[in-house]
Description:
Blueprint: H1 3-24, H2 27-32, E1 47-50, E2 53-56, H3 61-71, H4 82-88
Antiparallel strand pairs: 1-2
Helix pairs in contact: 1-3
Amino acid sequence: MNRRKSKQIKKKSEELVVNWLQTMLVEEEQKKLTVDNYQKYLPEQTHIFVNKKLMVSSYTPKWFQKKIKKILPRKNIEDITWSDIENLG
């Protein structure tokens, strides 16, 4: 994967994280949430240790990046939505 594609994936994952966080916040907090400050709403711990494996925590930017990479062969990156991630399972 080239650098241009990875930048697009990273940007899309940040957008999806913000969209996901906005679904859980009250309306006045939703207005404060942007792509620039979403990280203060996420926990600091990004990985978990399960069954003697270190795994990426759910709903982190890295987790979204992995899900986007699975969808990319079937869909264009601009067309990927939150529902595509949900349906992926």
